[in-house]
Amino acid sequence: MTAKLGGLPGMRGIDHIGFTVPNLDEAVAFFVDVIGCEAFYELGPFQSNDNWMRTHLNVDPRAVMRRLRFLRCANGSNFEIFEYEAARQRREQPQNSDVGGHHLALYVDDMDAAVAYLQARGVHIQGEPTFRTTGPSAGQSWVYFLTPWGMQMELVSYPGGKGYERDTDRRLWHPVFPDR
């Protein structure tokens, strides 16, 4: 499926999601050893004595991108994980309510098994899974959890589909059925 008429020419979908972590080795170990992603190549360091970093990446001109690593996590977008060093670098994680707040959601087939797995590995689960029984998300369960460095992630599951599917033949992308 390509972009709708009038959209970005040739757009096929999301290639990767990039995010910055305080320690690349810790993040890669978490995503590989706990989540089950596959690590691919690493690049870096990158820095510049002119304004290249500001012009191209919108960071402090003297910022140093120590390293970056690409990972694949089953079906869906790849991750590009960065480790930066910069003057006035903010090190606290944004909350979902902050501008720029975000979370990464991982689809799982069995919510209870996934939660138990993460708990057995010492991962902080934020509350209990929520199950939606009405509305467009009916049939979906979800729960947030935190990475070791405090980034919010989510487990989501809707093996029987979502409520909105009763009213349309259109579908959101689904990692279990990537060709739909």
From TrEMBL:
Gene3D superfamilies named in the record: 2,3-Dihydroxybiphenyl 1,2-Dioxygenase, domain 1
Cited Pfam families: Glyoxalase_4
PROSITE patterns in alphabetical order: VOC (PS51819)
Source organism: Aromatoleum anaerobium
Annotated protein name in UniProt: VOC family protein
UniProt keyword list: Metal-binding
Domain VOC stretches: 13-158
Higher taxonomy: Bacteria, Pseudomonadati, Pseudomonadota, Betaproteobacteria, Rhodocyclales
InterPro entries: Glyas_Bleomycin-R_OHBP_Dase, MMCE/EMCE_epimerase, VOC_core
